[in-house]
């Protein structure tokens, strides 16, 4: 047991030292993996959502489904650093897709919609960040949020197959 704000001293049995070092290593590995996942998610969703493609709404639906699933998954981490990495990457997906549409479509409606999204998403995030930690939720609500997160993860597969044309290939195979 260590007083708040002090670093733990590695005195004591060898097994305690090894456990502390292994825990720190595992935390660093998980942080690196989540950072890589977040960066990959942002880059891939930004590349996927091409506003000039035929079914651009499907690509945006897939990107937003993945972003929402990652955001809901972030609440399951005890470590705030890990949850923050996933939450920031989910919000970055929305921002990157919005900026790509605004820059490539060159229309007043697209720019106004992008400005609205770029203002409303951080405002909604700030409101949720101030309300959610101060609220005690009942177990039924927590379970519902968990199931919605699972449903979003599972919904990404049919959306991806539809976007890749797998369903059309199966339907029209000869």
Written account of the structure:
- The chain is mainly alpha-helical and 174 residues long.
- The chain has helices at residues 14-48, 56-74, 80-105, 108-131, 139-164, 166-171.
- Helix 2 runs antiparallel to helix 5 (139-164).
- The proportion of residues forming helix, as a percent range, comes to over 70%
**Number of helix segments?**
6
Distance between termini?
69 Å
Q: How would you state the average pLDDT, rounded?
A: 88
SSE order, as H and E?
Answer: HHHHHH
Count of individual beta strands: 0
Low-pLDDT segments = none
Structural class: mainly alpha
Shape, per Cα inertia axes: globular
Largest sheet: none
Name some characteristics of this structure:
174 residues, mainly alpha, globular
Layout of strands and helices, then pairs:
Blueprint (H helix, E strand, L loop, with lengths): L13 H35 L7 H19 L5 H26 L2 H24 L7 H26 L1 H6 L3
Task: Compose a concise summary of this entry.
By secondary structure, the protein is mainly alpha-helical.
